[in-house]
Amino acid sequence: MRDGTHVSIQRIKGTQDILPEASRAWQELESVMHRLTGEYGFQEIRTPVFEATALFVRGVGETSDIVEKEMYTFEDEGKRSLTLRPEGTASVCRAYVENKLYGLPQPQKLYYIGPMFRSENPQAGRFRQFHQLGVEVLGVDNPLVDAEVIQLAVQIFHALNIKGMELQINSVGCPVCRADHREVLLAFLERKRQGLCGLCQGRLERNPMRVLDCKNARCQELTEGAPTTFTSLCPECRDHFDRVQALLQTADVAYTLNPRLVRGLDYYRKTAFEIVVAEAAGTQNALCGGGRYDALVEEVGGPPTPGMGFALGMERLLKVLSDQKIELGEGRVPPLAALAALGQSAQRSAFRILSQLRRKGVPVTMDVMGRSLKSQLRTANRDGVRYTVIIGEDEMERGVAVVRHMLEGEQWEVGLEECVEWLERKYR
Ligand code: AMP
User: Fold this and answer.
1) Sheet holding 364-366, edge to edge
2) Which residues line ligand 1 (CB under 6 A)?
3) Cα–ligand 1 centroid distance for 161 (angstroms)
4) How far apart are CA 42 and CA 37, in angstroms?
5) Which candidate, 48, 61, 116, 300, has a CA 20 to 30 Å from the CA of 324?
6) Residues near 1 by beta carbon (within 8 Å), at least 6 away in sequence
7) DSSP strands (E only) in 224-298
8) pLDDT tens digit string along 225-255?
9) What pTM does this model have?
10) What is the DSSP letter of 322?
11) DSSP SS3 for 187
């Protein structure tokens, strides 16, 4: 604060203002997402932006990075611990249980689009407030659901014409086969313990599978050749994974197997997948991640309910679109006409015409700054309108407006009373 009246307040690091020039792309992207999820039979769910902290501790997992170090947690006046949602799946599961959606016909196919909050180190593609499209299918564990969800994720990339995307899949098994895998993996990792990063040494005790997921180059090198889940899968998980792959092949969805893709928490089961874009600038090339979480609904207090879903990062997707020079949609549709009124009584007439046209759904604009005719025409030109409707003192006296076609320069005199109908005809 400099003089007690002037305070310079800036946005929080890791957050963004989406300005008008960028928000168009957001709207277009959102509308593609609403359309495609709708075509796949998903319905939108909107849950609160903050929830009881316990929901995320249980629903994301105590040993996850998110819960260990990335949550925006605060106490409210009633001394309850609340957290800004770091992801959407736990909230959807809570809403499913709380609103008894399990009593409705299954599966429930839900999607959401909205902001998430993680207290991370901001860098390219990594924000503290970012947006996700998420989809969740609750109530059915058929591999058909896994394939359908993965196909939807892939189709979003195709619909946007994104090049160089790669779908990676894995199966993380279930608690039965994971126990076997954990044993052989731990034996393997113990031999490498000294070389692992500090974080991974801690993970060895709590969650050895996550070591495979470490981004540290040395850890990746040391864990090369580590036993994969594939070899430990129990017959049920093996069969499920085989069927998911067969269905993806049937649907012509290309994929690669990535045994390092892990979702290390207990309630993740079977299928895990990620979509990366090869030439995505920077290191944050994972755009979409998902999988099956058959024990999560129970974890947040509901009946045993299988679930499968994904979350897609919208900032990263928009970055790839801009890197690949892909323009979304047709751009801004300019208003049909600009009303250029000179003087107060002409402004009132123009305002009446403006209101009537807008009520009829005809897009029009009007100067509100009392500027000169010349500068109003310049603005109209810049906005790309087809007509300018000029009402000066002279026109007011004669009860007419001069309508000018901005490209062709042709002009007509139209009675003030007929202006609305005249322009409406041009619009339809
Ligand atoms: P996750 O919920 O961590 O599996 O993330 C799903 C997707 O959300 C990722 O693939 C990213 O595209 C996106 N995402 C996750 N964290 C961030 C972040 N901090 N900033 C921007 N996008 C993110």
Assistant:
1) 364-366, 337-341, 387-391, 400-405, 411-415
2) 87, 118, 120, 125-127, 130, 132, 286-289, 311, 313, 315-316
3) 21
4) 5
5) 116
6) 7
7) 256-257, 269-277, 286-292
8) 888 888 889 999 999 999 999 999 999 999 9
9) 0.88
10) H
11) helix
